[in-house]
Amino acid sequence: MKKYLIALMMVLLPVSVQAATGSVHLDAIEVDLENNASLQRGMGTFVDRCMGCHSADYQRFERAANDLDIPNELVEEYLLMGGQKIGEQMKIAMDKGDAANWFGNPPPDLSLEARLRGPEWIYTYLRSFYKDESRPWGVNNVVFKDVGMPNVLEDLQGLQVNHCTAQESAHGASGEIDPLTNTRMSSCLTVEKAGSQSVEEFDRTVYDLTNFLVYMGEPYRLESERLGTKVLIFLFIFFLFAFALKKEYWKDVH
Ligand code: HEC
């Protein structure tokens, strides 16, 4: 019995491995792979803002377009760059060696990033850049100390400052948003120079982006969830027939 219980627990453990994040508090996020509008916006942001440096080698444009119900013409018009074909993987032109020279570390492929770090980590990371003049890009990050990536979403988010010491700033970017001042209360990070989006809008942008990264890590999950429902309906109908047949067979025995 104990053996079965242990086996059951192993099955129920979540698939994505949470990377060690020290003592930094990560903000909660509930991903929703059924929300096509969010995934579509996330894909737009990803191609627009992230694929300058990061590839997604395990994902093809066409597959994503089909899964997320984006018409192929729109992908061709807005998402493909310089001679890319819709059937191709989401590769980029940047050379890994050059990138390592420019940034210290090369920007990793992000196809499986959400499985590696978990959605909470990504959601918090992308919202936790803050001003730090001592760093090459003028920013540091609460979740990823001394990160080699610039804050590529700064024009949307604005420039944040960090009021806390290293120990205290283990808060991520959480805290209630005050609608009057458009700042996050009881948070170490506040926007010093506003960007084009409000704090709430920016949370949504990063939510959509994180949602898309989770989808990319498990593109078959959408399909299997939809298939799962069909299989259950089939099993239910099959059960009715099997039960009727059983009754028919045993009718003469009793
Ligand atoms: C200008 C180039 C550049 C752009 C554009 C860029 N990144 Fe990065 N990114 C980097 C570099 C360089 C690193 C590696 C940082 C390091 O290891 O210090 C990185 C690291 C990361 C990591 C952490 C990887 C890990 O697990 O170690 C994530 C997540 C990430 N980027 C997400 C994004 C997303 C999402 C976007 C689009 C909004 C984006 N990046 C746009 C350069 C870029």
From TrEMBL:
| Alphabetized UniProt keyword annotations | Heme, Iron, Membrane, Metal-binding, Signal, Transmembrane, Transmembrane helix
Signal sequence residues: 1-19
Major localization class = membrane
**Pfam entry (one):** Cytochrom_C1
Entry's transmembrane regions:
227-245
The listed locations are: Membrane
Could you name the domain of life of the organism this protein comes from? Bacteria
Keyword match Magnesium: no
Could you tell me which SUPFAM superfamilies the record lists for this protein?
Answer: Cytochrome c
PANTHER family (UniProt xref): CYTOCHROME C1, CYTOCHROME C1, HEME PROTEIN, MITOCHONDRIAL
Q: What is this protein called?
A: Cytochrome c1
Q: What is the lineage of its organism?
A: Bacteria, Pseudomonadati, Pseudomonadota, Gammaproteobacteria, Oceanospirillales
